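Table 4 source record.
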Amino acid sequence: MIYEKVLGLFSKDLGIDLGTANSLVCVRGEGIVLSEPSVVAVKRGTNQVLNNGQAVGIEAKKMLGKTPLNIQAVRPLKDGVIADFEIAEAMISYLMNKVQPRRFGMRSHPRVLIAIPSGITAVEKRAVYNSAERAGARKVFLVEEPRACGIGAGLPIAEPQGSMIVDVGGGTTEVAVLSLADMAASESLRVAGDDFDEAIISHMKRTYNLMIGELTAERIKVAIGSAYPLEEEMTMEVRGRDAIDGLPTKVTVTSEEIREALREPCAAIVEAIRRTLEKTPPELAADLVETGLTLAGGSALLRGLDKLITRETGLQAVVADDPLTCVARGTGIFLENLDLFSDILESSAM
């Protein structure tokens, strides 16, 4: 106990939204202080992070698809869970040290609350615990992403009424109906923003014999991607490598064809929402007729996704304010009320 109090003098509690595409850090009492892409650059064949452990986040993302043979840009999380244990540990350590650098030569050992997908397995939970503890956390708490996202989006999740959150991230889509701070019905779908990018990559190869990378696919998605017909359709010039002769080339694509390419992953998300609604108790379902559902996560910004969901489910879908930060903001609220929510947070002490 005394040891923990001493460590607490040199650190502040942290909330981490450990996302497949982006990781955000919230400091208790200060709010969100860091947002970085979940990418780490290492020497190929090793887990040695470049630039003395600093080639993480924005610096590493710039290297995606552009590294020489001896360097590899790695995304340590896949489908919302840790795919590479050691590199994930390096990334968590980087995030913690950047937010709370050494003081008086002492490394900080904060309590850390990490948001995880609701469909995560026991083995995957243990990987999160171990990575955070080895990175320096003195105590680790876990909270399901839908809960953190719902409270971060401003929904009254602690009230005896139904609130529906759909968190469309990079690796997973979390769908949940919340009431009394718990999930009455939920679905964790490993289809999300990365699948949008992969669908665009496949379309460009199939239709134009054009090979493009993740960064180009993401730019296309942001620039002209949509899930619902636009008032004014758009075009975009795309550069890449010809799959037949291997030479650099460019083509012009339309928003209509990109929308068709995204139809399958969008339909999977809608179907997950339908399945969750089918499992929802009748009284809570009745609440949703009035309250609708809230979209969060970076991929909720795909044009027209809210309109598509409204059309297919009959519920009014709205995009949360600053949807990318809802989960991180939620971890901050949980940190401020650890005693109140202690019974719903899983924890592991060092």
